[in-house]
């Protein structure tokens, strides 16, 4: 598994297409959208070489038109999960022994398929399944997934090329083996790219995978499966299952061959999984790798020296792109009183200018939240804010689920820095702002750092370099991805490796070599050329 004489293509970030009016890419994605809207696809379980249809199915619908069925997917029983594990382990030896450059070629081909013939389809599927507007679908399902696949190949070659020193009398080398067993990948609804990367990154390093996508993302996950198959991922390497999450997880974690989990989802679920792994620890062949990115209560803090227009734009984009359903979405902001009038005016003007509706209409900036459960939770907080004396909704606050799960971008201003929506993860288009006194900058930094159990993303806006340095130092544990004079969203693979700590995860930085190293188990090999034939050292004398 050494770098050898191969030169892997240098990874470059995939350019984002504009989808401007009358552009060919707009026409293509709309054609794909309309075809898929009427498709009524049937998604089986993918176990080994089999496509298994259990007959126990659930419907897939679009959040922006929840009465419209776009397809069905089949639910697994425990025997199917056990079969998936067996198939993965059966495929393991041949896959692990495959030359690394052959594995790399498969995923580089997958990247090119997404960049070319699958681009319109994967974007359209993401628009339908997750109600992303075309820009959000493009930067996620196409560009970020392409970047993950390409850059991970480059990171893999860097890892394999990292070798220890050797002397003339010995040769030392590191062999980067896959984990002994299989990896369990649990992926979220909000990013098609994450759904592709979590199983692919582990598989690229020679591991076999059981992949459970979110029920709310299966429609677009099907395109990823099609791409992987066409790219040449062998049967049994990535097995895809759907169904009762608790049953699937319990069955996987009960296996002696469970070797690791690659997870993105809620903090509560991740903690429960970690606890179950701990309970089963004496049963496993090896200590499982636990890699997870979980919740966030991501912040923006503005210094009195900040540019009000930049702060307002950062809040609007950071909080309301993809309806606030990004892991990195801003949901709490701290604004100095001196800047508040100008920021408030721009926030209200910009939010009122946003159109909301189906992603098929490219003039819509806002579409629907993912499902009824999310809608109802968000509405309960909005309604409570309308009643509370220490909260005021300055824009938005309306909602309607008769056709789709639509919630207006909503900004709450509170006089209580510990108001519930300043502390509770909501995962929707709700931003809460606390206006602080300019002289209390340092106190407010302390407030930002101590308010939340999470530490995923955060941003500071300031034109004062001393204040920037102060915030960067004070908030070093408050965000794994920290942004200066920019919104706290939009991490790019190869540029801003992503992940946070505290209750936001294990901070293993997707989009970097750090993450891939978690899916390798190095073996050190020392070969001595002239082997000693007498135990005696010089200090013993004759």
TrEMBL record:
Protein name per the record: L-glutamate gamma-semialdehyde dehydrogenase
Catalytic activity: L-glutamate 5-semialdehyde + NAD(+) + H2O = L-glutamate + NADH + 2 H(+)
Encoding gene per record: pruA
Stored InterPro entries: Ald_DH/histidinol_DH (IPR016161), Ald_DH_C (IPR016163), Ald_DH_CS_CYS (IPR016160), Ald_DH_N (IPR016162), Aldehyde_DH_dom (IPR015590), P5CDH/ALDH4A1 (IPR005931), Proline_metab_enzyme (IPR050485)
GO molecular function: L-glutamate gamma-semialdehyde dehydrogenase activity; proline dehydrogenase activity
A GO term from the CC aspect: cytoplasmic side of plasma membrane
The entry's keywords: NAD, Oxidoreductase, Proline metabolism
GO BP: any one term: L-proline catabolic process to L-glutamate
Protein family membership: Belongs to the aldehyde dehydrogenase family.
Listed pathway(s): Amino-acid degradation; L-proline degradation into L-glutamate; L-glutamate from L-proline: step 2/2
Protein source organism: Flavobacterium gawalongense
Any Pfam family the entry gives: Aldedh
Highest classification ranks of the organism: Bacteria, Pseudomonadati, Bacteroidota, Flavobacteriia, Flavobacteriales
Domain Aldehyde dehydrogenase, chain residue ranges per copy: 58-512
EC number of this enzyme: 1.2.1.88
């Amino acid at each position: 598994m050494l770098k050898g004489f191969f030169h892997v293509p240098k990874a470059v970030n995939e350019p984002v297409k504009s989808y401007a009016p009358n552009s060919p890419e707009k026409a293509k994605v709309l054609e794909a959208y309309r075809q898929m809207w009427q498709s009524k696809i049937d998604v089986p379980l993918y176990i080994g070489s089999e496509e298994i249809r259990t007959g126990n199915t659930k419907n897939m619908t679009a959040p922006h038109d929840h009465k419209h069925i776009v397809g069905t997917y089949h639910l697994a029983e425990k025997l199917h999960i056990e079969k998936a594990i067996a198939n993965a382990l059966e495929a393991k030896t041949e896959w692990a022994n495959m030359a690394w450059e052959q594995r790399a070629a498969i995923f580089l081909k997958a990247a090119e398929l997404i960049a070319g013939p699958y681009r319109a389809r994967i974007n359209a599927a993401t628009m339908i399944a997750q109600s992303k507007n075309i820009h959000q679908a493009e930067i996620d399902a196409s560009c970020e997934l392409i970047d993950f696949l390409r850059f991970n190949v480059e990171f893999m070659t860097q890892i394999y090329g990292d070798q220890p020193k050797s002397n003339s009398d010995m040769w030392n080398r590191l062999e980067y083996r896959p984990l002994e067993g299989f990896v369990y990948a649990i992926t979220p609804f909000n990013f098609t790219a994450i759904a592709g990367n979590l199983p692919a990154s582990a598989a690229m390093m020679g591991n076999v995978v059981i992949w459970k996508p979110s029920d709310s993302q299966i429609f677009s996950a099907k395109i990823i499966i099609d791409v992987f198959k066409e790219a040449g991922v062998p049967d049994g390497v990535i097995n895809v299952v759907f169904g009762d999450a608790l049953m699937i997880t319990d069955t996987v974690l009960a296996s002696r061959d469970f070797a690791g989990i690659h997870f993105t989802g809620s903090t509560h679920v991740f903690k429960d999984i970690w606890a179950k792994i701990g309970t089963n620890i004496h049963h496993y062949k090896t200590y499982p790798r636990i890699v997870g990115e979980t919740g966030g209560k991501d912040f923006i803090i503005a210094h009195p020296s900040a540019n009000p227009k930049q702060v307002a734009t950062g809040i609007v984009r950071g909080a309301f792109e993809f309806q606030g359903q990004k892991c990195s979405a801003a949901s709490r902001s701290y604004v100095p009183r001196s800047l508040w009038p100008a920021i408030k005016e721009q926030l209200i003007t910009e939010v009122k200018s946003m159109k909301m509706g189906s992603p098929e209409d490219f003039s819509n900036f806002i579409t629907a939240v993912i499902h009824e459960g999310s809608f109802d939770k968000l509405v309960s907080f909005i309604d409570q804010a309308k009643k509370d004396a220490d909260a005021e909704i300055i824009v938005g606050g309306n909602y309607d689920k008769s056709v789709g799960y639509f919630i207006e971008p909503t900004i709450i201003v509170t006089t209580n820095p510990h108001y519930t929506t300043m502390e509770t993860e909501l995962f929707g288009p709700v931003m809460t702002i606390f206006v602080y006194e300019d002289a209390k900058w340092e106190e407010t930094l302390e407030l930002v750092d101590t308010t939340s159990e999470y530490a995923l993303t955060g941003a500071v806006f300031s034109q004062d370099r001393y204040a920037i340095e102060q915030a960067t130092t004070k908030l070093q544990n408050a965000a794994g991805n920290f942004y200066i004079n920019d919104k706290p969203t939009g991490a790019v693979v190869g540029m801003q490796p992503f992940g946070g700590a505290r209750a936001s995860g294990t901070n293993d930085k997707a989009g970097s070599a750090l993450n891939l190293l978690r899916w390798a188990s190095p073996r050190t090999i020392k070969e001595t050329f002239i082997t000693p034939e007498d135990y005696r050292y010089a200090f013993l004398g004759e």
